[in-house]
Amino acid sequence: MKEITLTLKRELHLPVEAGEISPDKFREKSIGEIEGIKIWEGNRQVALADIFKVSENSGGSGDEVTIRVVGNAAKVRKIGYRTSSGSIIVDGNAGMYVGEEMSGGSILVTGDTGSWLGTKMKGGQIEVKGNAGDYVGAGYRGTTLGMKGGTILVHGNAGQEVGCWMTDGTIRIKGNTGLMPGIHMHKGTIWIEGDCEGRAGGQMRGGKVIICGKTPTVLPSFAFEEIREKVKIGEEKIQGPFYVFSGDMNENGKGKLSVNAPNNPQLKWCEKYVEA
Amino acid sequence: MMILSKKIIPNVICTFCGATCDDLQVTVENGKVLNVRSGCSTSLSKFVNYNVERYLTPLVKKDGELHETSYEDAIARSAEILANAKYPILYGWSSTSNEASRAGLELAEWVGGVIDNTTTVCHGPTLLGVHDIGEVSASLGEIRHRADLVIYWGSNPVHSHPHHVMRYSALSKGRFRLSRKDRTMVVVDVRKTDTAKLADQFIQIEPNGDYELMCALRMAVRGDDLEQDVIAGVPAERIEELADLMISCQFGVIFFGVGLTMTQGRHRNIDVALSLVRDLNARTKFLIMPMRGWYNVAGANQVSAWVTGYPYAVDLSQGYPRYNPGDTTAVDVLARGDCDAALVVASDPVSNFPVEVSRHLAKIPVITIDPHPSATTLISEVVFPTTIVGIETGGGIYRMDGVAIVTKPVVSPPPGLHSDVEILQDILTHVKKLKMGQ
Amino acid sequence: MTELLIRNGFVYDPLNGIEGEKADISIRDGKVAESVGAGATVIDATGMMVMPGGVDIHSHIAGSKVNAGRILRPEDHEKDVERHTPITRAGTGHSIPSTFTTGYRYARLGYTTVFEPATPLLKTRHTHDELNDTPIVDKGCFPLFGNDWHSMEYLQQGRIEECAAYIAWMLRATKGYAIKLVNPGGVEAWKRGRYLVGLEDRVPNFDITPREIVRGICKANQLLHLPHTIHVHTNDLAKIGNYQTTIDTMDSVRGLGGDNKPVIHITHVQFTGRTGSAWHNVGSGAPEIADYVNKHDHVTVDMGQIVFMDTTTMTADGGFQYMLYQLSGNKWMNFDVEVETGAGIVPYRYRRNNYVNAIQWGIGLELALLIKDPWRVYMTTDHPNGGDFTKYPKIISWLMSRKAREKSIARINSIARNKLDLPDIDREYTFSEIAVVTRAGTAKALGLKQKGHLGVGADADVAVYNLNPTKIDPSRDYRLVRKALKKAAFTVKDGRIVVKNGEIVETPMGRTYWVDSQVSEGLMGKVESEMRRTFTEYYTVQMDNYAMDDSELGRSSRVSVKAEV
Question: Which of residues 75-134 of B touch C (CB under 8 A)?
Fold first, then answer.
């Protein structure tokens, strides 16, 4: 296994686009070649070595690659673009578009990431210890097909529109989210362990959104179905009880929105629809 | 060309708001505007006061203060700043002509920057909603001739577009709707605005409840029961009545403003509004139209879209157009402190953007093209005075519904002033030389 | 005085009867000349094919609905880009390219003239704004009539001459080239949420039928001596089996012309060439339509061929577009234009294994292969409705090679395959016929006497393709044909080399053609004063602000004709 460390040499002021930082791109290259890879800093192309000190720890068998990024990479975008195998560890913050179009392998960020984490993802795993921005796992503007597969885990909070237009995969947010997780979702699972600002599952057609914390209201286009003691995600069973709603009816949706009951006394009104 | 005697110039196009009334009669004597008829009070004020407190010579900053300089010096300074910049932004464009936008887009391409217009703080959410859903709309005359139900949602045209209701909607005369009594007007807003006072029905909505109310209306239009008694502060029966009104009309329209685009949910408020109108078309004829604020923000979008494929927030830093609002929008670029130079045309972002965003503008070299002093010109490195579109120079513009018309001058500009198109083209010529020399 | 010599190529100039002979083309000052001097720049076209530059009679490249499509679909542009160079502007592509990209891509294909075929009168200024930013190619546009209140009222009153004068006024005001009819009468009905059926249904509030509109405007066209015939997108596009309406429309104006010249052009016939009563039994009406076209020489048509791809449909036929939205569930834009017409846009993906799409694919090709006279059928995709124009080389290969067709036929929905006649059609187009259906024939139909051929005096718009017709068998080597036609070895525009080996080397501004049909002063005066009154009642724009000035065109090229009225 090859481990390559990229250490930021200087403070960044301009946006840096470094989709080349991916095990797929580094696999066949020597250190010299990696140093010479062209990336964008603002409107200029620079060598990777202009921004990062590149070093290698070899050893171990197999030709899998691990990339370690060290330093505050909050302005570095597209880390892990189109990764299909191998792993990336960002020791610090990362910028927008981490893991864009990823299909395999893994990415770990110890700090925060910018928006569009795992955008257009097809497979693989992303884990963020800190907070993520808006549009976790979303598609591009205008497409009706978002994330297609893979798993995203955010330990901190996430912003608006987690899983926008999701078509499959799993997103787990241990902290809180902003508005509209699962908006326009087709399929897949979004599990929010903290609070959700509101409008969960808006315009969804299918899939599952689970909120363990608080959310102020449920949209009028969600019909109350039942109270469930537990909700299942894959093999895992999450303890409720949950108010389970289906919707979005305005889209003839068959999605399921499960909201923790004890944490949401303001939703008690739906109990009048429980069948005796 | 000095216009000396008194004359009345007919069919003048107003360059204030997106309604773009084109039947103004401007009285001019001795090269000065005396009066405006057929326009609203804001247009009168604009035409009569345009010459108050203007810049008349280019300025550059020396030792922290703006000093007069020659046009050539200002051009050279600007070209250098922009050609050397590694991530400049070019912002504004909505209060000037299409020709200026065209020149700006070419300049942005040569300097490898981000070009954005005021859509970003106004109807950007509308465009984002359109990307996902589409839009069912028409030119304004369709509404005048056919609409029997007019809804203003989060929009107060009595103040923002003073002649809108009279020219195009409830108070206008159409081929199939001859008078006010042939139409029903509804206003949905958080408080009873002056426009609401003209309406047949006023629905007061809780602030930030628009998404929920639209959602409930869609349910009611579909014929589904509402499980909640009150939604966004509106009783369910009232929502059902409004839905019935919408279904049973022959031709309805929703005009919406920043009450919908700039409240909680933003582009998703528009998304769901566009979806509601689309759903209604299965039952009757129904349209939706954004109330564009600036007189040529629609033009800035159109020009940007045909030149690059995208209507605003275009990043040309890598040599081809890229677009992602939230990333490439001027507000976000500034908030992250990513840009290292700025060109501002016919706009005042230091005043209009939130302080934590515009703060960055004070740290980078800014070039401003504007007839009047503003908070932005005061922090600029270079300031170009310029002529005023629709009064001193002509230029193409697009009305809020996308109809293109051409403004013409009614008076001459002060001597020595250049139009913004000329300034931009001269900067571009210099930039090309610098870039090709590199 | 600039001179150019294209030496020793295999020239296809069907208008002048040259079909692949070796010849030199001499060019001076932007026109084809008898000969040039020794100092001329030389293009060595040895072993290559030389044709007039392509003339596209129908392609939606500029204007309000095209731009609405661009705004609707950022995802369409994201992956297909053109980079900035010192000579060329950046842009984006795929199904709705940005304007600069459009000009470059046409030039790379060896095309030098393109017409935007549908623009609302009120919004034609917008179309010209975009055409002004479309480099290299010569261009023009067809403003929309037939749902406009003025036309319908004049025709309903039987006032053909006044209608003609009004149309002449509008063409001058909008700088338009020809009359376009889309779903005549049907769009006005759509604005009331209704669909008309057939040609005899009456337009609500206007007491006129589509047949009366088509005939009336056809007569007006004759009176005005416009260089092109009426250009018609027929009624019933939204109807499943609609080929009969196409035939009825063609037949409705039979006898209105004399001397064997066409009086009507039916566009993208594939879309209105279906048989059937339900989507599952749709079939090809191409044999019936081709039979009619073969027997009646007053008609020209263009294919509107579909290609299996994700593209964007856009027409003035708002009702059809709504139906397509309902069928596909895709996003939908609709834009009605006061007093005049409408528009609709829906992204759409044509799929091989979709029964209806496979039939549609067959219809377009059957039409072109069954219509015998290549001078009356033209190759188009109704860009971008059937597919984008960069797919033209592929379609050309289908016309020229049965083998290429078989390869595609083998992959389409099998039930459709069994239903179509296409698998049994042997015919293969020759290079000469291709030159007709992509340039000579279209130029002739448009009445552009200086285009589409390489006779002395013609505009020096030339395409040189790296294809040796004596060494290539297009039937067998269709892939080589595609490759060569995708990237011209040279494209020459007005005598200047603009493309070399598929790369843009120069970007001159092309001309914008528009027609000024001179009607008698008395008649025009009368009509104008009537219009002054109705304008204020009908429009939300003042009449004086409506009309365009010549100076608004980047390079105005006025085509002047004398009307009969």
Answer: 98, 102, 106, 109-110, 127, 130-134
